TrEMBL record:
This is GTP-binding protein. InterPro entries: CobW-like_C, CobW/HypB/UreG_nucleotide-bd, P-loop_NTPase, Zinc-reg_GTPase_activator. Residues 205-243 are annotated as: Disordered. Transmembrane segments: none annotated. The lineage of its organism: Bacteria, Pseudomonadati, Pseudomonadota, Gammaproteobacteria, Thiohalorhabdales. PANTHER family: COBW-RELATED (PTHR13748), ZINC CHAPERONE YEIR (PTHR13748:SF46). SUPFAM superfamilies: P-loop containing nucleoside triphosphate hydrolases.
């Protein structure tokens, strides 16, 4: 198959809340009107939140969004991943495909599916980019935790994001750790606000590089519950666009929820788009931090969340009660 007809495919992986969607938005904004880009998003929750964030961005001209919500594309939603990519391959004039797996997914399982497709379609798999969070990075933890090792092992390009919030010792520790990994990475990068240079997207994998596509019977460790019971840990809800939330009460409640989540180990991740009395906002809880930013109007208000310890039903109900009471 000729390189001219090939469709470059980039996987941007990383844990929940590390800034994958921000990195994709940064790329799209820089190339708005210049490239036709397809983005396939695997949301961790059931309502397709990250896909909605991308769809509503002003850089959306020439953008084709496909969402695979409510399951991990490395197992429960694998069939949806394959079907969605096949549909995107039929889109005329598409210049590039970016895939954002859920932060709970094992990238190597996703890459195995993509390698199989690359052998029979015009899909050209490019170097895998994995992001880690500078505010949470610690070399020993990254080396010992299976999830982070799977992430690092699958990456061709390893990126430490949010370096503006970390000290020089942390970024140097990351470089030392990353450069000692085997096999060696194509690039080791430190960045802020999810910015990924265009040069990273221009890189190609060496001919014949990468392991054979793995079977699904191998080790598969990620943040699912019993028997992949993601419904025991995740929740989501939508509200009609005319529903207007009280901005002050909503942000105060979520900030309190973020602080409580750190203390009690319950709220692992929260992301929502809300129509408030001050306009539309994206609100998030990640790594115990609550953040918000303005966003263009959307077709509805919606939120996804994931909990860890404690009683998931109680936490889910508390979230729903907090939001419904606004």
């Amino acid at each position: 198959m000729s390189k001219e007809s090939a469709l470059p495919c980039h996987v941007i992986a990383g844990p929940l809340g590390v800034g994958k969607t921000t990195a994709i938005l940064d790329y799209l904004r820089r190339h708005a009107g210049q490239q036709q880009v397809g983005v396939l998003v695997n949301d961790f929750g059931p309502v397709g939140l990250d896909g909605a964030i991308l769809e509503g961005d002003p850089s959306g001209d020439g953008l084709r969004i496909t969402t695979v919500p409510g399951g991990c594309v490395c197992c429960a939603a694998a069939e949806g991943l394959v079907t969605s990519i096949q549909r995107l391959l039929e889109v005329p004039g598409l210049d590039r495909l970016i895939i954002e797996p859920s932060g709970m997914a094992d990238p190597e399982q996703v890459l195995g599916l993509l390698r199989q497709m690359a052998g029979t379609t015009r899909l050209e798999l490019r170097p895998t980019i994995a992001l880690l969070d500078a505010t949470e990075f610690e070399p020993q933890r990254a080396s010992q935790m299976p999830f982070f090792r799977h992430m690092a092992d699958a990456a061709d390009i390893l990126v430490l994001n949010r370096c503006d919030a970390a000290d020089a010792a942390t970024t140097q520790a990351f470089r030392d750790w990353a450069e000692a990994l085997e096999p060696a990475k194509m690039r080791v990068v430190t960045t802020e606000h999810g910015h990924l240079d265009d040069a990273l997207f221009a890189l190609r994998l060496p001919e014949g590089s990468g392991p054979e596509a793995p079977g699904h019977e191998g080790t598969h460790e990620h943040a699912h519950g019993e028997a992949d019971g993601e419904s025991d840990r995740t929740g989501g809800a939508t509200w009609p666009p005319e529903r207007q939330f009280h901005h002050g009460r909503l942000t105060a409640a979520l900030a309190e929820l973020a602080e409580a989540g750190v203390k009690e180990g319950e709220v692992e991740r929260f992301k929502g788009i809300f129509h408030t009395d001050r306009g539309w906002f994206v609100l998030q809880i990640a790594g115990g931090r609550f953040t918000l930013r303005e966003t263009p109007p959307r077709r509805d208000s919606r939120a996804d969340w994931i909990v860890s310890d404690g009683d998931p039903r109680r936490v889910r109900q508390a979230l729903e009660d907090t939001l419904a009471g606004e």
